[in-house]
Design goal:
OB fold (Dihydrolipoamide Acetyltransferase, E2P), six-stranded antiparallel β-sheet, three-stranded antiparallel β-sheet, 4 helices, 35% strand
Length: 125
């Protein structure tokens, strides 16, 4: 199951584990990503907590946890190749994986269709 936050993070939840990243829209808005400050493994986050920071040529932006859980894995490839987030934000550019996920947090996130509608509204403003 894949869900989206209104902060433009995505989460793919499978078999009790959540993979988290930023959306293609967010990556495009940030521009060329130059650095990803990955979270520490073992970090416990609640939904909405700052998970990490992504820096680009335009700005530094906080990435918020779309769901609560414990960071069990980070995408070390981003340490040397942060641009992978631009090239493949919703696949190879994932940021971290969480376990002990607060499954109820998924209910407050958007489906693909809801997120697309949200983007349409946001870009009209």
């Amino acid at each position: 199951m894949k869900r989206f936050s209104d902060d433009h993070q995505w989460v793919r939840y499978e078999d009790g584990r959540a993979t988290v990243g930023i959306t293609a829209y967010a990556a495009d808005e940030l521009g060329d990503i130059t650095f990803v400050e990955l979270p520490e493994e073992g970090l416990v986050v609640s939904q909405g907590d700052v998970l990490c920071v992504v820096e680009s040529v335009k700005a530094a932006s906080d990435v918020y946890a779309p769901v609560g859980g414990t960071v069990v894995e980070v995408n070390r490839a981003l340490e040397t190749r942060p641009g992978v987030v631009n090239d493949s934000p919703e696949s190879k550019g994932w940021i971290c994986r969480l376990e002990e996920v607060v499954e109820g947090d998924l209910d407050s996130l958007m489906t693909d269709a809801q997120y697309e509608a949200f983007l349409s509204e946001e870009t009209e403003e």
